[in-house]
Amino acid sequence: MNKANPVDPFVVLKGEHELLFGVLDSLECCIATVDRGADPRDLRRFVEFLRGFLSAWHWPKEDDILFRALASSGFPANSGPLAVLDEDHREIERLLTKAAAYTANGGPAGGDALRFTLRVLRSLDALLRYHLEMEETVLFETAARELPETKIAELGEAMQVFLDDARGSFRYHSLRRMADRLQADFLPANRRRVALAGCAAASL
Question: What is the pTM of this model?
Answer without folding.
Answer: 0.89
